[in-house]
Each structure stands twice: as structure tokens, then as C-alpha cells.
Amino acid sequence: MADHEVSPLSPPSNEDLRIAARQFEYANRAAVGGDFDLAIQCLRTCCKLVPGNLSYRQALRKAQKNKYQNNLRGSLLAPLTTLFARARLWRARHRGDYRAVLEHGEAILSRGPWDKGAQLSMAEAVAALDLPLMAIWVLQQAREKNGNDVQINRALARLLEEQGHFLQAIQLWELVRKAAPQDAEAQNKARELSATETIARAKYEDVVTKEAPGAVAAKSPAAPAPPPEKMTPVKKRAVREEKALRERLGATPSNPEHYLQLAALNCRNGHLGEARAILEQGLSATGQAFELTLALADLEIEPLRQSLAWAEEQLRAEPHEEKLENACGKLRAEINARELACYRQRVKHDSADNNHRFELGVRLLRAGQIEEAICELQAARSEARLQWKALMHLGHCFKARRNWPLARRNFEEALKGMPEGEKAARKELLFSLAIGHADAGELPRAIELALDLANLDYAYRNIGRLLEEWQGSVALKATGK
């Protein structure tokens, strides 16, 4: 959980209680009539006015699930339509505004009632607000879809242990141990809690205390978090790296590079909210350093990238789903537009950086701004390490301009200069050259290239079928038919 001072929830006013009760009545009528949208709207108002009322939240979750017929998924486009709610939830978590975390969490769950991230954040929030029973209920709801999820089961096991529900906690630690056999905490917890549960059930604690003062404390399973030496090597290294970066930051708080490195480390560990806070802190400390401004702009794109990855995964499972195809297209266009704006700023700031000019050229090509893309990519190809990549994208530019001779020249030069290990790019280039030669009526050369590609990957973009068609056309031409 975030490390913040937490004030207890202030009791709702009589007016809030009155309004919530009336909204609850409206919600029940709407739910009976099948109008789940209205029921959800009313119940979200109830939860906002009286956030500590578990009954309101239980009714809200039931309506949210009924709306999607308990499909364990919610709306197909939930990751896309909840982007802004997720961003607001991350910011609320970082500043310790747990009431806001609950409100934004419910906004997400109204689109996807089984969203793991929202449920974990809400459980953290209600636990911080000293509502342990509600926290347990939220995590139990999360297990409905993710019954063997290590993160959910670990969080719930800890809460149950704190509340003295040792048997239930033991069962969950066993699930964690089975899912993660190397987890030291899970291995020890089941054994420790079994002993604690036995002591509690037999009411031996007083006797043990009298016989050996302090013995219970020594044997208590409520041990502190594992010491650093019990952490995995990867975790230890991350902790050391973060400590070193924070020390450097404390020594030279006006150096933007330290903020960039620390934010990058948090991004790698999945702590996007913390990374954002570090960059915002750096902007204040460095007088709005240009590098930090761009890093923050790039970080704002990350939720879109995550949503695109999710949508593409769903599309692979349902390849002919039109809504998913449209969502992927819109997300790619939005990501490219934002990245394009960022790289324009980078190139404007330092036009000698060929890496930025290459990245700008790639995004200009995707946006269909071919003339400008050619200029940037031709500038970037002067750098040896970028040359083959720039040439490959220049080939696509000239192909889009319907200039096959220039496209072919750039593709062929890229193929010659490509490193041996670039298998995916090699297949793409062979395919582009083969198609280009076939479209130009140069079937013998198209067949040669297609054979090279088929030898690498016969299933690549139907090259096997195309090769057979081209070979058949050449054979027919040779026989004069």
C-alpha cells in the first residue's frame, strides 16, 4: 500500500444519508425493471455519499454484473473506455486520496466488473480507511474470476490473517504456494498460521505467557516483512538501484538525468503512478527541463499502449470481431499521433540526433505524411547503425508513392546491410520485394525471392500460396497457353 497518513472516514451528514437512502430505493426499482444503467448510476451516488456502507457497494456490484449477464468480462471495449478513469485512479492512489480511489474504481468496474487492477486498488483503499470487512469482500469478489491469482490471494490472505481468520488464510497461502512454488513467504505462512490457529482455538496463549513471558511474541507468526536477504536477487538489485538513484537525486536535485533514470526504473517495475510523480517533482526542481517534459508526455501514452496490447490479444482470439478491429485501429492512430508530436519536439530541440529523426520518420510514414517522412529517413540513414532500418522504411515510402524503382533500390540495400539476427525484418523485406517484383510483372525474380522467404517461413503471409500461383503463371507462359 502507498505510504500515506490516512484520516478516518468522516461520518456522512444526515442529508447525505437521506439522499443515499432515496437513491437506493430508485436503484432497486430500476434493477427490478431491468434498467441496470440507471440502477448503477443511483448506486454509485449512494457509494459516493456513504462510502463505508457495504450494502450499497454489494448492490452496486450485483447490478454491474447483471448488466453484462455475468460474462466474467464486462464490456468488450472496457480497457479503451476506462482509460481516463484509470489515470485518475493512479493519481488518486499516489496522493493518498482513498475516497477518490473508490469512486474511480467503481467507474472502471461499471464497464468491467471483474477488473483485477481496480479491485486490488479499491481493496487497498478501503483497508487504508480502516474498513477491513469491506476490503475482504472486495478481494473475494476479485477471486470470482481469478481464483488462483497469486497477487489477489496473497492480499486476501494477509487481510484474513490480520482479522484472525487463520483457516481461510492458510487455504489461500496454499494456493499461492502451488502457483508460485519458489515463494518463501507462502511456504512458511501455512505452517506458521496452523500453529497460531491451534493456539487460538485451544486458548493456550495465557498459559504460554505465564510460563515464559515473551514466548508468544517470539513464536508469533505475525512476523515483519521478509528481510532484504530473503528477497529474490532481481528484487534486491532493484532495491539497491533505486536507493542509489535516490541518493544521487538528493545530492544533485537539479540534474534531470537522475529523475529520468528513477522514473524509468519505476516504469520497468510497473509503478507508473510513482514514475509520473517523480517526473512532476523533477519538473519543479529543474525549472521545467525539456527532457522531463517529453518523458512525462511519453508516460501519458503508456495506458494507451497497454490497452492496444490487450485489444490485439483479444483480436487474436476473435480475429473477425469488427469492434475489436476498429478499436485497435483507433488506438494505433491515437498512439502514433501522440508519439509523432513527441518526436517532432525532440527533433526541433536537437536536429542532429539521427535516432529521433528516424523515429519521427517512421511515425510520419504511418500517418501517411510521405514527403516529410522521406526527408527525415534520408537524414537518419547517414548513421551506420540506423542505415538498414532507414532504408527499409524508405522503401515503404517510395512504394506508397508508386515509385517501384526507388522502392526496390532501398529494399535491396536494406537487405544487404541487415544484420544476421534480424529474422522478422528479413522476412518482411523479402516479402515486400517479392510482391513488388510480381506487381511489376517480373515473376522470375519474384519467385526467387519467394523461395528464399518460403525456406525461412513457408506460412509467412500466404507466401506458399503466392509462390505456387506465380510458378503456375510462369509455367503457363512457357507452354504458350
Kindly summarize this structure in a few lines.
The protein has 481 residues and is mostly helical. The chain has 26 helices and no strands.
Helices and strands in order, then pairings?
Blueprint: H1 14-32, H2 36-49, H3 54-67, H4 78-81, H5 83-95, H6 98-109, H7 116-128, H8 132-142, H9 150-162, H10 166-179, H11 184-202, H12 205-211, H13 215-219, H14 233-251, H15 256-268, H16 272-286, H17 290-299, H18 302-317, H19 322-349, H20 354-366, H21 370-380, H22 387-400, H23 404-417, H24 423-439, H25 443-456, H26 463-479
Q: What does this molecule look like?
A:
This protein is mainly alpha-helical and 481 residues long. It is built from 26 helices and no strands. Helix 15 packs antiparallel against helix 16. 34% of the residues are buried. The longest helix is centred in the C-terminal third of the chain and has 28 residues.
Helix percent band: over 70%
Q: How many extended strands?
A: 0
Summing up helix and strand content along with how strands pair, one would put the structural category as mainly alpha
Estimate the mean pLDDT confidence.
Answer: 85
Pick out its properties.
single chain, 481 residues, mainly alpha, 26 helices, disordered N terminus
